Structure formats: C-alpha cells, structure tokens
Amino acid sequence: MNSITQMTQRTLSTLQTQGTKPKVVAAIPCLNEEQFISDIVTRARRYVDNVIVVDDGSTDNTSAITKGKDKLKRRKKVENTQAANCKAPTILITGGCGFIGINVAKYLYSKGYKIRILDNLSVGKKEKLTSAGLPPSAVELVIGDVRDRDTVERAVCNIKAVVHLAAHTSVVESLGNPEETWHINVTGTLNLLEFCRLKGVQTFIFASSNAVLGEQAAPVDETKIPKPISPYGASKLAGEALCTAYYHSFALNTVSLRFANCYGPYSENKPMVITKFINWARQDKPLIIYGNGSQTRDFTHVGDVCQSIYLCLAAVDSVAGEIFQIGSGVETSINKLAEIIQEIMGKKLPIINKPKRRGEIERNYSNITKARKILGFEPKINLKTGLEELCELFKLKT
Ligand SMILES: NC(=O)c1ccc[n+]([C@@H]2O[C@H](COP(=O)([O-])OP(=O)(O)OC[C@H]3O[C@@H](n4cnc5c(N)ncnc54)[C@H](O)[C@@H]3O)[C@@H](O)[C@H]2O)c1
Prior knowledge:
Layout: H1 3-17, E1 24-27, H2 34-44, E2 50-53, H3 62-66, H4 71-85, E3 90-94, H5 99-110, E4 114-119, H6 127-131, E5 139-143, H7 149-155, E6 161-164, H8 171-176, H9 178-199, E7 203-209, H10 231-250, E8 253-259, E9 261-263, H11 273-282, E10 287-290, E11 296-297, E12 299-301, H12 302-314, H13 316-319, E13 323-326, E14 332-333, H14 334-345, E15 351-354, H15 369-375, H16 383-397
Parallel strand pairs: 1-2, 3-4, 3-6, 4-5, 6-7, 7-8, 8-13, 9-12, 10-15
Antiparallel strand pairs: 11-14
Helix pairs in contact: 1-2, 2-4, 5-12, 9-10, 11-14, 11-16, 14-16
The structure holds nicotinamide-adenine-dinucleotide.
C-alpha cells in the first residue's frame, strides 16, 4: 500500500470512529497519480456512499477511468486500468503447469503481469507452457514441491501475489491416501502463507473447491456450513481456515475461491466427465453414465475461473478475508451434458448406465450472487459455446 492510499484510509477511518461519516469523498489527483486513484477509490468506497474523482485528465488516463454513468462499469474500468498500469508485478502461480494453472498463467500474462510458476511436475507438464503460447522469457519456472520450505521461500521472493493452485486434486485418490493429500494441500498451503507473511507478500488467492461443503441442498452458497465428505474436501476446508486466520492475524490479503467443476483448454488428460465424453464420442464409443444421469453439476469454463482470480487481484483490498463460490450458476444434468456433446459432434451414441458411485452427490451447483455483487464476477462463456470450442481443440490435438 503506498503512502497516499494509507493516508486516505487512515483519514476516513478516523472520521468514522469520531462519528463523522462523510457521504461523499472527492479525490483530487495531482501529477499523474492515475495508478493510485483506483486503489483510493476502492478503499474509500468502504467508508462512504460515493467517491468522486476530480481531474481534467489532461496528462494521464484518470478521466477515462472514471467517466461513465454506470457505477459498476466505472469500477470495472478502474480495476482493469489498475492492473494495466502497475509496473508489471510478478505473480507466483503454484501448480501453474496444471490445467487451471496454464490458463491462469496465459490470462494474467495477457493482462501485463510477470509470471513465476512453482510446480513439482507430478501432474503438470512444462512443455504445455510453450504450446500454450507463453514465451519462455515470459515465465520463470521453479520446479519444486510446496511441501519443501526452502523451495517455497525461494519462490515467494520479490512477488506481489500468490495464486495457490498446486494441490492433490483427486477426490478418489484422497480416499486412498488421506495423509499425502493433507501434507500437499494443508502443509503446502501453510508453507506458502508463512513465507508470504515473512517476505511481506500482500496477496494470496487460494483455490478452494465446492468439495468443502459436502452433501448439501442445492444450490450451495457461502452461508452453508461446510461438512466435507472426502479427505480432499477436508484438506481444502483446512486451507480456507488457514487463509482467514492469516488475514485476521497477520493482515495478509487472502481470498478463497470455491471453484465448481471446471472445464476448458489444457484439460485433455484430466479424468473429468466432459473430457471422457468428448474422447469417447470422438472414437464412436458408448457414453458411460453412473446412475440414471439425473445428477447435476455446475460446469464452469476455465476462462471464467481466470476472470474471478483476476478480479480478486485487482480489487483485493475490498475482498480480503472473503470466501466466494465461483461457478456458472447453472445446473446441468449429466444426461443433458451427454446430449449437448452428441449434438455438437453430430453423433447419436449408445448410453451405458452403470450403478451409481458411492459418495456421489445428487445435485450440485453454485449460487454465485456474492461473487456477482462484491467481486463484479460475471460468467461469460456458456456451456454450449465452451464445449464447441473444446471439441474443436481436442480434434486439433489428437
Ligand atoms: N479442475 C477443477 O474442476 C477444480 C475444481 C475445484 C477446485 N480445483 C482446485 O484448483 C486447483 C487447480 O486444479 P487443476 O484442475 O488445475 O489441477 P491439476 O492437477 O491439473 O494441476 C495441479 C498442479 O499442481 C502441481 N502439483 C501437485 N502437487 C504439487 C506439489 N506438492 N508441489 C508443487 N506442485 C504440485 C501438479 O504438477 C499440477 O501441475 C487445485 O487446487 C484444485 O483443487 C479444481
């Protein structure tokens, strides 16, 4: 936080403790303070109803970022400009060679951030970074394990924020090896938080999951009491708890994002229903469905997951300490998914129904109202469009 934003926050909070609550605050930048204005606006909004920026915009972009009738639009513009103008801060993406990681690296690189990745390559492949169009000069790769404190200490040096994705991600495997899941997902998260604290890193975005909630009436939201039903879900809940603890104890700006079922580019090796259906359909094989196919999920395009991470980075001061459900907000049954994929591929395939798997949740989708309101998150890629794009990509890859 720079001294101008610190001063703004201190003044407003003093006024508030004195019982004077200003309704409107005017920010008057001088000498090209464009990059501070967005931060000041974000902070001031916590204390007042409205913020007016007074500026002629003659020598910088401040007038452009604050113009417009719609408050929300204006806020988004401010946030975008903030990221574009910061002097290329480095973001550490753990698990950056995995499915979501590669997409996040591409997305944040396109927004002007420098990228450092920490990955032990147990699942991820470093070659994918180049095939994803990320030039080697754009990404610094630290090959190592989040359980290793020395590696983590090295990885968090001179960075602005961490996007923590590295994890043992399989629910089924977590049942076979709960201890390893715990070490990677919880001890690994603790190592990162601890070195962020020690090295003065300001921001920590944690990839959580709907799995923390367990069996709940749909749709799920942040008010439900988490009751994980797998070691994987329990480890993610522990990660969320560490994040809120580090926010309150050490003022580290943490945000936990509970992703729903994610799909999209670079997922071809993931054992997910969408990947399986597309691969079977391409080979004219029957589609296997466990149970009668009426079970529902919230299929979320990875581009929208990237958007949510970017919004957190850009407005972290107003969302620190929070937990958000991130999904499409749309409930889709497995039968419907099979129908859409067959329609896209122009094929009618036999369906084989196998017995329902133990522990499978019947209905699961996210209520994303909180993310919409506070984060300005809006899913942009609907399932049909995302699947059409994915089927094309899979065709090109094999
Ligand atoms: N994909 C989804 O649908 C989904 C849904 C909810 C939450 N999430 C969470 O999002 C994150 C990313 O998921 P993904 O689908 O990209 O998973 P992924 O398995 O494709 O990627 C995980 C990456 O972490 C790396 N990794 C694993 N253990 C490591 C360790 N000990 N040290 C360093 N690196 C390690 C792997 O090599 C891999 O590159 C995970 O935290 C996952 O739990 C994913």
